């Protein structure tokens, strides 16, 4: 009996142990499964975090690129606007030329000349010349016959620049504009102050809102007229005393190539003579020949434009005096400057009879040459020196 009870207890004990072992194996399997699931979730979360970081970094790079492009587009907005306006002007000019050629061309090879039409055209040309003479005051009848002497007033040392008096004002002030790109005018009460060794300390400084380009600016009746830097063909009218911009204009066809081959920084050269404000430039359509435009200095409107036979090749400067353009040429390495192309807008000068005029007593080159109609002298900038040339004139 006792043995039987022991056997029953042994069976129960073994059964209990085996059940516990089975439960432990099931718990271990469950824990292993849960562990694997957590590892899988952690890997997915890590990948998700990495993807988010990659997306954030990519978005930052894209934002930087977009902002950079927007800044560039904003900077070029004014330039693009100017180029579009210039292109529209050229398209309108081309359309007028096409309309003209279309009306002037007949499909027949033999064209009968209409004498009445020819007479009408000649009459219209004569009337146009009369209007030009009235506009330009044909009483201005002198022409350049020689360059008598020179005076080197000062040597600032700057390679490029422009200096001048205001021929439209009754004062002795001298204006100095250093460099081919700058925005500061130096104003001196007289030429003696300008000639002093510490001249910059005695100058009144006038700062422009926009810098100029080239050396072709001019001062007339208290206003500075200049080609705005980084624009194709924008001319600004600036009041020197009030220090503000009063007007501006776009000069059709100008600003795409240098006005003079030997002065490449000057795309538009502004000039003053007895008749007022002129613009000198070159165009690809004229094969580099110089074009001159009469501008109303009050309204900043174009009054008339002339294509000249004067080439911009080997030219270093030019000026207008008494309705006549004088173009100055030189060697690329520098030499004796000479005037060898003259163009009178009213055909009052037989340019073929004019001898070549040489600038006296110096070798080198000019950055600018401006005519002062009040004193009938040339204010020039040559190799860092500020020079005055006296002129000899005669009747046309």
UniProtKB/TrEMBL annotation:
Residue stretches in coiled coil: none
Gene from which the chain derives: Olfml1
Disulfide bonds: 140-322
Residues that span the membrane, as ranges: none
Highest rank taxon of the organism: Eukaryota
Source species: Heliornis fulica
Cleavable signal peptide: 1-21
Main subcellular location of this protein, as a coarse class: secreted
Keyword vocabulary terms for this entry: Disulfide bond, Secreted, Signal
Protein name: OLFL1 protein
InterPro entries reported in the protein's UniProt record: Olfac-like_dom (IPR003112), Olfactomedin-like_domain (IPR050605)
GO annotation, cellular component aspect: extracellular space
Domain Olfactomedin-like span(s) in chain numbering: 139-395
GO process annotations (BP): signal transduction
Location of this chain's protein in the cell: Secreted
Pfam families named in the record: OLF
UniProt xrefs under PROSITE patterns: OLF (PS51132)
């Amino acid at each position: 009996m006792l043995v039987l009870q022991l056997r029953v207890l042994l069976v129960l004990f073994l059964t209990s142990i085996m059940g516990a072992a089975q439960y432990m194996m099931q718990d271990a399997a469950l824990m292993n499964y849960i562990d694997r699931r957590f590892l899988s979730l952690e890997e997915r979360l890590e990948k998700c975090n990495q993807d988010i970081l990659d997306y954030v970094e990519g978005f930052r790079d894209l934002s930087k690129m977009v902002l950079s492009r927007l800044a560039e587009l904003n900077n070029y907005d004014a330039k693009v606007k100017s180029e579009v306006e210039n292109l529209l002007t050229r398209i309108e000019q081309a359309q007028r030329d096409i309309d003209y050629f279309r009306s002037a061309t007949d499909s027949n090879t033999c064209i009968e000349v209409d004498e009445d039409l020819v007479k009408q055209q000649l009459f219209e040309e004569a009337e146009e010349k009369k209007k030009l003479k009235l506009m330009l005051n044909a009483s201005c009848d002198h022409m350049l016959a020689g360059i008598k002497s020179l005076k080197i007033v000062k040597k600032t040392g700057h390679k490029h620049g422009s200096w001048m008096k205001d021929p439209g004002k009754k004062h002795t002030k001298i204006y100095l504009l250093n460099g081919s790109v700058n925005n500061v005018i130096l104003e001196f009460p007289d030429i003696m102050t300008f000639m002093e060794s510490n001249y910059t300390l005695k100058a009144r400084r006038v700062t422009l809102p926009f810098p100029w380009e080239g050396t072709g600016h001019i001062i007339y009746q208290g206003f500075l007229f200049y080609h705005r830097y980084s624009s194709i063909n924008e001319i600004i009218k600036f009041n020197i005393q009030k220090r503000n911009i009063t007007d501006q204009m776009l000069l059709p066809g100008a600003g795409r190539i240098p006005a003079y081959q030997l002065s490449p920084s000057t795309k538009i050269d502004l000039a003053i003579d007895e008749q007022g404000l002129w613009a000198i430039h070159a165009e690809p359509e004229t094969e580099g020949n110089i074009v001159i435009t009469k501008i109303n200095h009050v309204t900043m409107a174009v009054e008339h434009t002339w294509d000249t036979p004067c080439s911009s090749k080997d030219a270093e400067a030019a000026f207008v005096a008494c309705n006549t353009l004088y173009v100055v040429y030189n060697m690329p390495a520098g030499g004796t400057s000479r005037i060898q192309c003259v163009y009178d807008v009213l055909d009052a000068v037989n340019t073929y009879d004019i001898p070549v005029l040489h600038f006296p007593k110096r070798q080198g080159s000019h950055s600018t040459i401006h005519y002062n109609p009040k004193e009938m002298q040339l204010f020039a900038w040559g190799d860092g020196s500020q020079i005055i040339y006296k002129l000899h004139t005669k009747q046309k």
